[in-house]
Amino acid sequence: MEQPILGVIGGSGLYEMDQLEQVEQRQIETPFGPTSSPITIGSIEGMRVAFLARHGIGHFISPSEVNYRANIYALKMLGVKNVIGISACGSLREDYEPGHFVVPDQLIDFTRRRESSFFGNGLVVHVGVAQPFCPALSDQLRAAASAAGANLHPRGSFITIEGPRFSTRGESNLFRSWSIDIIGMTTAPEAFLAREAEMCYAVLAHITDYDVWHDVEAPVSVDMVIETLAQNTATAKATIVNLLKLLPNKQDCDCDHALRDAFITPIEKVPAEVREKLAPMLEKYIK
């Protein structure tokens, strides 16, 4: 099977696209357990793309229960090198309005209960994430979203909270005092795992609400999120189609060798079972 050139992690409705042909579904088991959903692979104008429903088909997996490691590992097994996370978010500033899109350039992890690394158990790795999103892929995503007519903010800092509850007003105002722009529940540890897997990763965040800080607008609710999600889906789909046309054969970035200088444990001393478990990430470093 031809390798997908792009992986998309988002809502289950994203792959219901008129342009998608030669569709197949793959259920992939990983050393970290099952993925959130079967992976739908199809072709758009001859280019293969893989879709994964982050919260399962029908949205039954809570943000804290998503098997982020299995999802990223499965895409790595398929040979995917570029991954886009499509995420709903709340705005923490007046000018980032519901219905707008953001391609963030910074990420703050405020989660508490999630497995955030593939490594451990005899292999210590410290991967660099000063730039948590791939700059090259993010630029291509900005161009694709703009061409799709998105009302786009090209940068922003994105905080991931544990969820599944929404913020208190005190928390929301605290995050605003830290000059954070948008808030959501899923981008961490997804971005960090993609970096450990040496995959390019970027996020198309679409704003559904003003969280709970706003004095005039209604506090965020499930109905509010769902309504705006539906409105934004067409733009997100068009962005994916545009992005496929912009992807180069190889990104001009450092993502594909993010582990090169990250190992503390000598590879030859890593337990054999760990080497086997993490083979898709380690094989090029094992001599």
Description of the structure:
With 287 residues, this protein is α/β, with parallel strands linked by helices. The protein has a domain at 86-285: Rossmann fold, CATH 3.40.50. The protein is built from seven helices and 13 strands. It has helices at residues 68-77, 135-147, 169-177, 187-196, 222-246, 272-277, 279-282, and strands at 6-10, 21-26, 29-30, 33-34, 39-44, 47-53, 82-91, 101-102, 106-110, 152-153, 157-161, 182-184, 200-209. The strands form two sheets. Strands 1, 2, 5, 6, 7, 8, 9, 10, 11, 12 and 13 form an eleven-stranded mixed beta sheet that branches. Strands 3-4 form a two-stranded antiparallel sheet. Helix 2 (135-147) packs across helix 5. The mean pLDDT is 93.
Average pLDDT value? 93
**Number of separate helices:** 7
CATH architecture of the domain at 86-285: 3-Layer(aba) Sandwich
| Structural class label | alpha/beta
How can the largest sheet be summarized?
A: 11 strands, mixed
Beta fraction of the residues?
15-25%
CATH topology of the domain at 86-285: Rossmann fold
The N- and C-terminal alpha carbons lie at a distance of 28 Å
Which class of the domain at 86-285 in CATH terms?
Alpha Beta
Q: Using DSSP, what is the number of strands?
A: 13
Shape call: globular
Short key terms for the protein model shown above:
single chain; 287 residues; alpha/beta; Rossmann fold; 11-stranded mixed beta sheet; two-stranded antiparallel sheet; 13 strands; 27% helix; globular
